[in-house]
Amino acid sequence: MRNYSKQREDVLNAIKELKNHPTAEEIYGKVKENNSTASKGTVYRNLKNLVIDKKIIKISKMEGPDRYDLVNYPHYHAICASCGKVFDFVYDFDVENIRKSLKKQIGENIDINDFSLQILCDKCKNKLQKNKI
Amino acid sequence: MRNYSKQREDVLNAIKELKNHPTAEEIYGKVKENNSTASKGTVYRNLKNLVIDKKIIKISKMEGPDRYDLVNYPHYHAICASCGKVFDFVYDFDVENIRKSLKKQIGENIDINDFSLQILCDKCKNKLQKNKI
DNA sequence: ATAAAAATAGGAATTATTCCTATTTTAAGG
DNA sequence: CCTTAAAATAGGAATAATTCCTATTTTTAT
């Protein structure tokens, strides 16, 4: 594993400090607050690299910018399609079996980095019911 | 269930015609090609509504705009964090059990609309190995 | 020590998404 | 069938998010 550049560490540290799924913009802000030289391009590049390296994952919602979260303990995200609320949860997915199944279907021995669930939360379910959407 | 507006159907039809995970822009293009009056705002609004209604799902990658796919048969998506390649796959997730687990953890009886996997495909794994990233 | 490869700064350029207002359409009630 | 309120839309401006570009710096490999 190649050593992280100063800037990549700055990005990772910013996420650690921010907590609660910051956006790229918020991360860039924190990075600058910490007097890192990292430019916006560098932040985006390193967010991608950190995702590839499984240090962080990206959380995408139906609205607003993408968000990022540390991979510090094994948890996943369930994201409401309607209101965008993100629920952290733990679950023991049978990763090995899923990987085998994928191997069979696509012929590749991929690595599984993350699961995410798109859901409808109670509040939104009720509201949609009421509005008959 | 409220009837779909003409425009919402136009958006859904555009996705059906396009196949292969079109972007909002591509969908808007197709919608216009089909002489729908739908504006861009309408396309985005209805993409969200169609996701909430489980007619389509959104696919988010590490780069490029979000993409959409029909929920026509039960399949999920595994997305390479590095190259963005999307693999369709079928898997029998134990939805009921996952839902129960979520109920216990977050106290809500959410609906699960979709699963998605963030992965590293073989090609990218090898390239990263080679480059020691 | 040196050359090649990779990463960065700085910010411009582009692209994606949201938002706004006036208008039109739909739903509900009498 | 009217009437009114709520919801959805058109059109496009405004905003926000992301990518891209060039010159420079840093790292890696030899």
Short description:
2 copies of one chain form a homodimer. With 133 residues, chain A is an alpha+beta fold.
Strand % of chain A is: 15-25%
Specify the oligomeric state.
homodimer
Average pLDDT figure of chain A: 92
Largest interface: A-B, 47 and 47 residues
| Main beta-sheet annotation of chain A | 3 strands, mixed
Radius of gyration of chain A (CA) equals: 17 Å
Let me know the number of strands of chain A. 5
- The termini of chain A sit apart by 51 Å
**Cα shape of chain A:** flat
Helix fraction of chain A, binned, reads 40-55%
Comma- or semicolon-separated keywords:
alpha+beta, 44% helix, three-stranded mixed β-sheet, two-stranded antiparallel ribbon, homodimer, 133 residues, DNA-binding
What does this protein look like?
The structure is a homodimer of 133-residue chains. Chain A has 133 residues and is α+β, with helices and mostly antiparallel strands. Chain A contains five helices and five strands, in the order αααββββαβα. In chain A, the strands form two sheets. In chain A, strands 4-3-5 form a three-stranded mixed beta sheet. A two-stranded antiparallel ribbon of chain A has the order 1-2. In chain A, α1 (6-18) packs across α2. The model of chain A has no long low-confidence stretch (mean pLDDT 92). At the A-B interface, α3, α4, β5 and α5 of A face α3, α4, β5 and α5 of B. β5 (111-120) of chain A pairs antiparallel with β5 of chain B. The structure holds a DNA duplex (30 and 30 nucleotides).
